[in-house]
Structures are given as structure tokens and as C-alpha cells.
Design goal:
The complex is a heterodimer. Chain A is an alpha+beta fold. Helices cover 49% and strands 24% of the residues of chain A. Chain A has a 5-stranded antiparallel sheet, with no helix packed on it. Chain A has a 4-stranded mixed sheet with strand order 7-6-5-9, sandwiched between helices. In chain A, α1 crosses α4 and α2 runs antiparallel to α3. The two termini of chain A are 29 Å apart. In chain B, α1 packs across α5 and α2 packs antiparallel against α4. The mean pLDDT of chain B is 81. Chain B has 2 domains: 130 residues, PH-domain like (Roll), CATH 2.30.29; 70 residues. In chain B, β5 and β6 form a beta hairpin. Chain B starts with a strand and ends in a 9-residue tail after the last strand. By secondary structure, chain B is an alpha+beta fold. Chain B has 6 helices and 9 strands, in the order βαααααβββββββαβ. Chain B has a 5-stranded antiparallel sheet, with no helix packed on it. Classes of the chains: A alpha+beta, B alpha+beta. β4 of chain A pairs antiparallel with β4 of chain B.
Amino acid sequence: MTYENTTRYDKNAVWALTLVFSRTVQRKRFLLRRLFLLVVGGIALTGGLVLLMVFSALDTGSRVICAAGLIVGVAALGEGVFLRRIMAWSTRRSLWKQGDSMERRFIFSAEGFQGSQPGMETRFAYETVKGVWETEGYFVLQMDTGHGMVVDKTGFTQGTADGFRQFLAERTGKPAEWLD
Amino acid sequence: MEFEICLDNTIEDLAAFWYGFVRKKAGKPLSLSDDPPKWARRVGCFFCWFFVVMGAVSIANSLIQGRRMYMEEAGILWNLFLTTPLGGILEMAFGIWGLWVLEQAPASYLLRPPYPRWVRNAWKKYQAGGPLYRCHFGEDGVWVYDSKSDHRYDYEFIEALWEDADRFYLVLSNRGGSHILNKARFTTGDPADLPAFWQAHTGKTVGEVTPDRRRGK
């Protein structure tokens, strides 16, 4: 049985990839980064607000520090709160800047699978798949700690998403884990 | 015609890539010799012996003078070093360690790194990333085989091929990175024929890596 799929790396696909990685293999790094941003943002914003309360009594240097604290605080807190969305946006932007076609064609056969885009193709053995996750609209295959593939459930031109789930579990030995 | 190159890179290959492509400052490449210059070794030895001798003097002094060296205004830590042999022991240990480093590791990074930091980091990543097996130039494109996957690139999507005396540098599209093709590791085909093959398939000439070329130019 062969499964063929075309997946557009649009906003939703990259979001699924980011969601899976930030909740699984990169979870620790993601949480540490978020914690750092929230703590730094919280301290800077609190300091800025305290200085703002006595703004009229401050000299020029302290006013600059107050403004800087508020700006840094809001920026760091904002990044901490929306970190996952920013990461997804940044991934997509970097693909776009690299001239990526933003579309992948996958062929999964019994021996292995390949992903292709204009000008290049890559073939993998199923043993190289480290993990398989499933979201509402996508399958995500983890190849290593920083590299994954997204397969759109609605993008199958041969086979179905349900059959593919079963097929992938048999070939990789890793049943897809569901992530909301 | 086909070419196949073993991609068993060494740190010297990465260093050559750094000098040719990554380093922003142009000019004559630095020596890759592992031996530090003699003056650096002498200076290192002098300071190591200085610590050894001063450590011994400090130990003797603390034993002879003892609590008479106690200073009220100094903190507990300083007085610990002044009135006991602890400071002298640490000084001596540091000096002996330095002499050992000079003796055991003449190419010690303490004196002068034998390779630039970028090269050392790239070498670590290269070793951790799993082996690259080989690169194959054929009629259907360029194949790169590694331990995890096989990649094929169409010629029209490959950015450039550069050459210096010992190596070719295959620069893939922006996202594919680069590969170093050592001329001594061609297992199929003659390196001298690759530029003509490249030009026939891409219409581009092979660039020459010169000491004054800079990244992006």
C-alpha cells in the first residue's frame, strides 16, 4: 500500500508543527524560555510602574530607565505569553525568506518515504522517525530534536488519513500520540 | 560521466571552509600548526613557576607567622588565606596544574587555540550529527547520502560550486547548507573533470576561492 499526500506549509500546518515540538521534544527548552521572558518582563514592568508612580519627582536619567523598563517589560511579557504563536510565525517567515515553495509532496511506501519540493527530494527510512503525533488536522513526524514533517489529513491523493495512521504505526512501530 | 566523493570530513576541511567562506576578515590564513609559539610556552612556564614558588613562600610564611598575620579589616576568607597554608596550597596547585597542561597538552587552548572557535564548534556539531556518507554527481542531479536520509538536488537549484587547491565547496540552495568535497576523496571520476561537468549541467562556472574573498561576495 502506498500513501501519497500533498501538504501546504500554511499557517495551520506550521502551527501544528510548533505545537507538537513545544509540547514534546522541545518542551523543557520552551518552558524555560517562557519562564525567563515572564520573569524578566514581570520585573521590568513592575520596576517601570513603580517609577511611573513617582514620575514627576524623577530626574531625566530615571525617567529614561522608567520608560525602558516599561517597554522591555511589555515586550518580554508579550513574547512570553504569545511565545508559541511567535515561534510559529518566525518558522514560517524563515521558510518564506529561504525561498521555500511551502508545499511538500510525500510518498509513503512499504520500504520508506520521501518528501519532495521543487528542485529537491529527500528519502527516509522509517527507522529515522523518532516520534509520531496527531492533531486535529495533521500528522507530525519527528525526525530529530529540531526537524519534523507535517502531513495534512485532508491532503491525501492516495489512501486515507485513517489508513495512514494504522500504516504509520506498523511501519515505525510508534502509534500516533494525540495532541489537542 | 559521474563523480562520487566520500564525505568523511576532517577538522582541517572545516577549517578550510571557515577560511574560505565564513571568516569575514580577509587575508592570509592563520597557521594551523598545533604547536604554540616558543615565546608563549616560555611566558606560560614563567607564570606557572611563579605561582609554585609564591605558593611555597606563602605556606612557609603562614606557618612561621601564623595568627600574627591576622588583619581585622580583612574578611574571614582573606584571613583564612593569610593565617593558614590554604592560600599557598591553592597557588602551588594552580602553578603545578599549569605546568602539567604545558607538558601534556602543548596545543592547549589556554595558549592558543589550534583552530578558530567556529571550526571547533562546527566540528563538534559535525561529529554529533551522524556521518555523511558520500556525494554523487550524476545526470539526475546531486545526491547526498547520510546516515539518516538520501537527498537529491536538481542542478538548477544548487547555488554554486567553489574550488581551491585541495577541495570543492558545494553550496546548495539557501536552506540546504554546504558540503566540502575533498579532492583526495573522489572515489569515482577525476576532480579535474568536475568543473567542466558542472558547467555543462548548470551553465555556471566554478568559482575560485581566493584568500581575499568574503562571505556573500
